[in-house]
Methylthioribulose-1-phosphate dehydratase (Oceanospirillum multiglobuliferum), 832 residues
Amino acid sequence: MINLATYAAQAQHVIAAGQFLYGEGWSPATSSNYSARIDEQHLAITVSGKHKGQLKAEDIMIVDLAGQPVLSQQKSSAETLLHCVLYEWQAEIGAVLHTHSKAATVLTRLLADQDQLVLEGYELQKAFPGVTSHEGQVVIPIFENTQDIRTLAGQSLSYLEQYPDTPAYLIRGHGLYTWGKTMADTLRHIEAMEFLMACELELLKVAR
Amino acid sequence: MINLATYAAQAQHVIAAGQFLYGEGWSPATSSNYSARIDEQHLAITVSGKHKGQLKAEDIMIVDLAGQPVLSQQKSSAETLLHCVLYEWQAEIGAVLHTHSKAATVLTRLLADQDQLVLEGYELQKAFPGVTSHEGQVVIPIFENTQDIRTLAGQSLSYLEQYPDTPAYLIRGHGLYTWGKTMADTLRHIEAMEFLMACELELLKVAR
Amino acid sequence: MINLATYAAQAQHVIAAGQFLYGEGWSPATSSNYSARIDEQHLAITVSGKHKGQLKAEDIMIVDLAGQPVLSQQKSSAETLLHCVLYEWQAEIGAVLHTHSKAATVLTRLLADQDQLVLEGYELQKAFPGVTSHEGQVVIPIFENTQDIRTLAGQSLSYLEQYPDTPAYLIRGHGLYTWGKTMADTLRHIEAMEFLMACELELLKVAR
Amino acid sequence: MINLATYAAQAQHVIAAGQFLYGEGWSPATSSNYSARIDEQHLAITVSGKHKGQLKAEDIMIVDLAGQPVLSQQKSSAETLLHCVLYEWQAEIGAVLHTHSKAATVLTRLLADQDQLVLEGYELQKAFPGVTSHEGQVVIPIFENTQDIRTLAGQSLSYLEQYPDTPAYLIRGHGLYTWGKTMADTLRHIEAMEFLMACELELLKVAR
């Protein structure tokens, strides 16, 4: 049985996340999708096509880990399956956020021949779990964009099973996926990724 | 007979759009003009020369599809005719927004020898009506700037009759026109265009 | 006799201008100074060294056209004389704003060998008084920075007497001066100048 | 005996500083640390790992000049010692702020072979204590980043003892430290440094 109080609380976290992320310019034009875990088998996720800065409670629905609607006739985000595989992969993941920033879009296009973004020498790398120094590398995979979400779900899961310390992934010309134990952790990962991607882009403007 | 309640409601949509667009920096220094359809023959449109972030109800007037004032002695925007031809072209258009962003101004000047902006490979292209993949092209025509609004009205209409799927057009060194069934749709088109133009400009900074 | 109600009203305009200009990032770190005319012989002007986003009524003092304090023991801005000569030059000037934006600072340094910024081909040029087309040129003089305000006052006045249609001037590595009949007009000039300078800077990033 | 009223007042200054600095984007993803002096031997400083835009009173703790917690079981910022040596160095320092901006991060990486940032020709240099003209140089040392805070504490102190007029220092790929008599002074130094670093970065984009 789903605990509706948990759903309601998680839906509020999703709404607040949307207000922040839209305000930062990272979820424009009804793009992006967000979710939070309700229990082992269920998540609260954004309904498809909503303005992310103006989410209402009824814009957050429940799906199971197969992506099927529960207690709802609404249509969840087209990318629901990308969220589901993350929750299934690691039981401790409590939230998943997908955003569409200019920095993510531009940087992945500029790195056209690379399948990863390598971050090193930044103090802010320490915002990611388990990172205690600026001296190591944080590797963020870049997947090619596709409208075939099932393929992307499989590809992202394979990668993460091989490299479980990965804190986020990028889709080229599209955006960022990240996750964390809590919504606050996940938002911190987004802030760090957006900061670091913006820095990389600034470096390219001068040094390329 | 004009339905004044419809006028009043549409005027409120125009005012709210102005607050948003000015806040984003896309309508500086009293530039820009906005309208919303009242009925088949009439639109609510901004009076010339007003601060777009501080519009009051009396700053929104009614004109007919020939651009003539109705129930008003005020002077509507100098570009009123560009709005009128769009409403006449397609009965389903409910709102038209014209903005002056830095990205639109700079990008159209940098593309000095091109009469169109071609967008491809961006997930956000899906924000436009009928676009379901990042794989196609979205073509935005760029018209030369002129103070002869009648000429520009004819030119834009000719283009749109030939390419009716066009979601927006640009005027070089000047700004963006876009439209939609509702004000919310039209604002989504602006957000998407501004995002994509900003990305194109960033790409040019690194890659040109 | 000074009309104190006029002083109080103008001080409020100055305070509101400061909140806007600081919010835009154009008056950082207690830089900038602002004034508004009280009568033929007096202006309300910011006291030296105040936070421009947090001005209080007591931070706005009265000076005469020679820059001498009236009814005050406070010290007005070090650049008071630059304001005074503008009010003396043209009786219709009602407000003078001096700001320190990044765009003004960087652009005047990049144009190191030029004593003017020439704006052309921008629709937004029409935000300046008397400009009705994008086709002409708007010429903004750039003066060398100096701590000798008396010299700069003379230099700016000489220039304006020769070119009275000038809507603003720049000081290299320092900032912008502009003026207008009302505070609203003057703020519109700043918005237009900041927009146009930002565009020029973006063009240089790609095209230089 | 510690004056708790002074602690409580200083903690409020720290909280307000955090709201401002986070809002500007200079303290993302729980980075940064801030402090204010309570008395000759004690300072109020941020607890490690908190969201800097959402600090609560309990997130500000007391440490002595050796960096040891007083009346607290919480863990202060990992960089506490960098604050302590500044307060010990100069009795008149009342606040110390450390921020992580994109400009500081990118600029120090671009100046990879330089151990200082030299600012000259900017009017805004006058925001720093004792600077009365744009004509001199303001020299900001750049230290290499390290997780060994004790080493960095010694290095920064040695430098400042040799060059006591230094208004701030940078850590490469990491961020900015600055200080002042009051929190307001220290915030003014940050605003000035961020403005000037952003200008330097813009210049590099065009001129390098």
